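Researcher: Here's a chain I'd like modeled. Treat it as a single chain, no partners, no ligands.
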Amino acid sequence: MTALAGCSTSSNNADNTASSTSATTQETESTKTEQTQTEKALALIDTFATGDTDIAKELLAEDYIQHNLAYGTGRDAFIGSVEYLASADEKTTVENIRAFEDGDKVLLQTVYNFAGAGEQVAFDIFRFDNEGKIAEHWDNLAAKAEPNPSGHTQIDGTMEVTDLDKTEENRKLVEDFLYDVMQGNNLDKTPDYFDGDTYIQHNTGIADGVSGLNEALAALAEQNIQMIYTTTHQVLAQGNFVLAVSEGTFGDKPTAYYDLWRVENGKIAEHWDVMETIADKSTWQNQNGKF
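Model: Modeled as a single isolated chain. C-alpha cells:
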C-alpha cells in the first residue's frame, strides 16, 4: 500500500507538474499574443529599422489600406518597403516620442530617418480591425528643424497623459476651436480657448503665446500667404491630448494639417504640428486619398 501510495503520489505530482507546465506554456504564449493596440503599432513601425517582414506580415491585415500617397496599398506593398529599407546601405532609425490610443485607432509621434535620407518628424494613425490586425494608415511627415523662436523643438514638451475622465470634454473643446478659430467662423471667440496669452508652441516658425501665433499669421499675410482650414477629417483624443487631422490650403497649395493640442483646465495650453503639401494626383502610388 505504501509503495502504491508512493507511486500514486509520484504519478499525481508528475501529472500536476505537466499540467502546471502546460498551463504556464499556454499563459506565456497567450501573453505573447495579447499585445495592446499601441504595442502592435510600435512593433510595426519598428520593422522599418529591423527589417523583420514576419512581424509586419503578422500585424497587418492583408487588405491594409494605405493613405501615404507615396506608397502602394496592401500588406504586400508595406512588406516591400520594409525589404527595401533593410537592403539599404544605411540603417533606418525609428524613435517614438508619444503614443496615444482612441478606440480602434492608435496615434504615434515619431522621428524617422529612412535609410539616411534625413530625420523626419511624423504623426502616424493606425486603425485596427475586429481581429486585432492593423487595417488602415494615415500620416503626415516633415523634416526635423532647428528649435523655434521660443527654443522649443517639434517633439519636446509635456509627455504625461492625464485627465482620462475629460477625454470627451477635451475632444469637444478642440472640435469647437477648429470650427470657431481655425476655420475662421467665430474669430471673436479666440480668447475663450486660452488662458490669457499662455500657449506653448512647437511649430517650427512660431513663438509662444497667442500673441506669437497672431504675429506669425500677420507676417504671412504681408507675404500674401494664407493658412486656411476647410475640413476636419478626424479628431482623436486620450485624456489631455487631442489630435486633429484637417484639410485646407497653405499659400494656395492643398495641405494636410495634423495638429496635436494639450488641454489643461479646459483651455488649450500646448501645440505640436506637422503640415504637409498634398501631392499632385498624377504622382499618387495609391488611389485611397490623403484622408
